[in-house]
Amino acid sequence: MPFNPFPLAWQACLVCAFALACCTSPSQAADSPPNVVLIFVDDLGYGDIGCYGATKHVTPNIDRLAQEGRRFTDAHSASATCSASRYALLTGQYPFRADVYNPVFLRSKLIVDPDRTTIADVMKRAGYATACIGKWHLGFGEKTPDWNGELKPGPLELGFDYYFGVPVVNSHPPFVFVEDHHVVGLVADDPLVYNQKAETKAFPEKFGLNQIGGAKAAHALYQDESVGTKLLEKSQAWIKSHKDEPFFLYHATTNIHHPFTPARRFQGTSETGPYGDFVHELDWIVGELMKTLKEEGLEENTLVILTSDNGGMLNAGGQHAVKSGHRLNGELLGFKFDAWEGGHRVPFLARWPGKIKAGSQSDQLISNVDLLSTLAALTSQSLGETQGPDSYNILPALLEESSEPIRDHLVLAASNRNHLTLREGDWVYISAKGGGGFTARAGHGLGGPPALLFAGEENSDIENGKFKPDAPNSQLYNLQKDRSQSTNLVREQPDIADRLRKRLAQLKAASITRPTTK
């Protein structure tokens, strides 16, 4: 029998009681809480898919989520970098509070405190089976990971019942799969060895990034072009094996992070080269997940959310896409790693038949840091003051057409800690000059003023790919009038800039920013 965490005899009373605590009405919580599938895409830019304006990519399955659900136009990752964004998603806490700004790699310990409440913990408390399948990128262990032993603590210590996926990122070693606490396919007489070249077909070997070798059997299981399909198959199997109980699936794709290595049937299918081909494979993955839900009779009572960890990146593939006439982040200024909108304004789609209005759109200011409080509200749970301290309940934005703003502010981070940013209403204040991301002219990624010159983007502080000599040391933009952030108003509106600077300092010092009830 399926486990029902809300017996009918006291269900109504529980919903009403917790509705007050979670700032949501009884109508906002489901009578029978739905399954939840969260598809967290890697590096998907605001302009990369059809329902957000892409004309050179064909994304019918993702677009269907918008047609049958709600599209958000002002959704943001709390950070413009991948590991920090995932930290925010899982914990409901701004990553800067844990001093997390940049990606973690091969030798990084787990950066999430196992004692901190996560979205998986929230769902387990409600009786859900929980799984994380895909890219992890939050580290393992209490110190340098032992890739030949137990990778613990990891996802299972953060509330997930099951984990299978890519432990770091598809552009960096160890280029193996991990299941629960161990590397898949590892044998005792052929261990992984630090600082040794790996015998692997992983594309990044061309960049000399194979810093852990040995383990021929484990490496042989990891082939770039099949990673997306492998993760999909694992999620499909997990859904089928848990269809008779409430479940929460966090499916974190390696698409569309570089290297762009889609399965062969998607190669050459787009107008933007391997970048677009990887988007096409992503769309297929989403379609196959939705097909599985339908075939198992789960489609109607499953909340599906798709969003991205940050904006699109102007790496070699992104540069080729731009040359092909594609705008990774639409009209937004900047790219992944930046404090500018292109770094963190992301697609956000939500579908739940009968609950979320089909074909609807919301302009509410929301963030991935809000999902912890939202899932708590969805399952009629209250949160302690230290749980999800920066996470707002956006369930009303998912279920209603309310014009009342849920958030009056949002703190955003770039890869450079000096570029902490405050969004308040139409205004956004950036506490330093430039985007705060890459400033390279070539190599791993093009960033900073040269990137704006390459992409044909304009900003009043920059001319011919360089900062003007008199460019101010902070920035202020009115996004209602200037969403492309072409004109820095920090000198024209000093009172607004000063007020936002002071509020940002207050929010940074605060231990909690979400609404609480006494």
Which blocks of ≥5 consecutive residues have pLDDT under 50? 1-30
Largest sheet: 10 strands, mixed
Oligomer: single chain
**Under the CATH scheme, which class of the largest domain?**
Alpha Beta
Domains, number: 2
What characteristic shape results from the CA principal axes? globular
Q: Give the helix/strand class.
A: alpha/beta
Number of strands: 20
What integer value in Å does the Rg equal?
22 Å
GO molecular function: hydrolase activity
Family: Belongs to the sulfatase family.
Domain Sulfatase N-terminal: 34-379
Signal peptide: 1-29
Write a concise synopsis of the structure shown.
By secondary structure, the chain is α/β, with parallel strands linked by helices.
Describe the structure.
With 518 residues, the chain is of the alpha/beta class. The protein has two domains: 34-163 and 230-407, 3-Layer(aba) Sandwich (Alkaline Phosphatase, subunit A); 411-509, Arylsulfatase, C-terminal domain (2-Layer Sandwich), CATH 3.30.1120. It has 13 helices and 20 strands. The strands form five sheets. The chain has a ten-stranded mixed sheet with strand order 7-6-5-4-10-1-11-12-2-13, with helices on both faces. The protein has a four-stranded antiparallel sheet with strand order 15-16-17-20, covered by helices on one side. The protein is globular and about 65 Å long. It starts with 7 loop residues before the first helix and ends in a 9-residue tail after the last helix. Mean pLDDT is 91; it is low at 1-30.
